[in-house]
From TrEMBL:
Cofactor: Mg(2+)
Identification of the protein by name: Mandelate racemase/muconate lactonizing enzyme C-terminal domain-containing protein
GO molecular function: hydro-lyase activity; magnesium ion binding
InterPro entries per UniProt: Enolase-like_C_sf, Enolase-like_N, Enolase_C-like, Mandel_Rmase/mucon_lact_enz_CS, Mandelate_racemase_C, Mandelate_racemase_N_dom, RHMD-like
UniProt keyword list: Magnesium, Metal-binding
Record PROSITE patterns: MR_MLE_1, MR_MLE_2
């Protein structure tokens, strides 16, 4: 695909990067079995072209300690990209080749994905198309779920009531309380509010060994959960497969795949019943499109990055659920909307990001 060849005659070229780091506030701290996130550490990237079009992206680096390293790496990569034609796939391949010996995981993978997503945003803006249309599809309704943190039964019930009022009809909770019965109580509390047939999934955030996860799921198998997510270490594909073979509830994984190489290993091991690539870790738009082609017909859901993921899921044949955990809402002026359990990619030029500059200045880190 040559997304840049549709306008402005000669290919637009990359002129410069603008890199900023922030700690974006969340509606409330997001607790998981692996820790609590008080604010979202984000690295923002703007790529300016020589025709004046600017493409934007953000990456969520999980810990404030990674803000400066990722920003520094992006600054170093700028010199490799400046003056190159605006061809996201070509640049992505060149950057991956550059890091073949070091590896394209971790901070390196995050930086390369940030560039890829910003370039695709620029290409879509240059073509005056939404990203989904640039990729060959048309915006359509997507099922969406609200991703809730780990809380007790009463607090979870209150959160679900609020989410229902905001338009959500499906939910995921962070499970893995010290007492397994607390997980059961939280699930029952949600059903008391939203109904016994509510769409509900649980995420263990890699908290257990395979035997522990299997024992936990024996308590939850009868709860009609839509999936159990990452019950064991993300890279333990054999362990995931063991859990999957021992329980009735579908197993979900994929948010911690670093590129299609990890995805291939997971699929080969039979680690899950469905997949959940993360737009950043899978390698940006370019990586996502490669992953979607390898999916073996399994349902595909997204992880974080709701803005760009809404475009990517729309072009994915086996699209399942869009995850909603709003880490960039404080700085994005054009969020997607949730209506009766559905959302849709914004049909405006680009991938749906338009910075609130005052907020960015306020939350600078």
């Amino acid at each position: 695909m040559k997304p840049n060849s549709q306008s402005h005659g000669d290919l637009a070229r990359i002129k410069s990067f603008r890199i900023r780091t922030i700690k974006a506030p969340l509606d409330k701290p997001h607790k998981t079995a692996s820790g609590t996130i008080e604010a979202a550490p984000l690295v923002l990237l703007d790529v300016e072209t020589d025709v004046g079009v600017i493409g934007s992206s953000y990456v969520f680096v999980y810990t404030p300690m990674a803000l400066k390293p990722v920003a520094s790496l992006l600054g170093n990569l700028e010199e490799l990209v400046v003056n190159e034609p605006l061809e996201p796939e070509t640049i992505n391949a060149a950057l991956e080749a550059k890091f073949r010996l070091l590896g394209n995981q971790g901070l390196t993978g995050i930086a390369v994905a940030a560039i890829d997503m910003a370039l695709w945003d620029a290409a879509a803006r240059l073509a005056n198309k939404s990203l989904v249309r640039l990729l060959g599809a048309t915006p359509k309704p997507l099922a969406v779920y609200d991703s809730l943190g780990q809380m007790g039964p009463d607090e979870t019930a209150r959160e679900v009531e609020t989410s229902l009022q905001r338009g959500f009809r499906a939910f995921k909770i962070k499970a893995g309380h010290e007492n397994p019965q607390t997980d059961v109580a939280v699930i029952r509390a949600i059903k008391n509010v939203a109904g016994d047939d509510v769409w509900l999934a649980v995420d263990f955030n890699q908290a257990f060994s395979p035997p522990e996860a299997i024992a936990r799921m024996q308590l939850l198998d009868k709860e009609n959960l839509k999936w159990i997510e990452e019950p064991v270490r993300a890279e333990d594909y054999i362990g995931h497969a063991a859990v999957r073979s021992a329980i009735k509830t579908p197993v979900q994984t994929g948010e911690n795949w670093w590129g299609v190489a990890d995805m291939k290993k997971s699929l080969a091991a039979g680690a899950s019943d469905m997949t959940m690539p993360d737009a950043m870790k899978i390698g940006g738009v370019t990586g996502w499109m490669k992953a979607a082609a390898l999916d073996h017909g399994l349902p595909v859901s997204s992880h974080l990055f709701a803005e760009i993921s809404s475009h990517l899921l729309t072009v994915t044949p086996n699209a399942h659920m869009l995850e909603w955990l709003d880490v960039a809402g404080a700085i994005n002026q054009t969020p997607i909307s949730i209506v009766n359990g559905q959302t849709k990619a914004l049909d405006v030029a680009g991938s749906g990001l338009n910075w609130n500059e005052k907020a960015i200045a306020k939350y600078s880190a």
